[in-house]
Prior knowledge:
There is one protein chain. This protein is α+β, with helices and mostly antiparallel strands and 75 residues long. Helices cover 25% and strands 21% of the residues. The protein has three helices and four strands; from the N terminus they run βαββαβα. It has a two-stranded antiparallel ribbon. β2 (24-27) and β3 (31-34) form a beta hairpin.
Amino acid sequence: MKVVIDLSRCAGDAQCAFLAPEAFRMHGEEALMYDPNPDDARRDQVQRAAAACPVQAILVDQMKARHAPAEASPS
């Protein structure tokens, strides 16, 4: 999973840090620090944090499909 933050949009509301503290944290009152490649075990937390961002500054790369097994075609 890859995370990108549009820091020009980030308003420092810290919803992401509250919902996924292992991936996002505030440094001071306005600077957001984040892990650009959080562990896949944190996928649900990171996606909830991205959805909760009031300015939609968090982009999550959906690489899940690349790791999913191919479905067998019906015979």
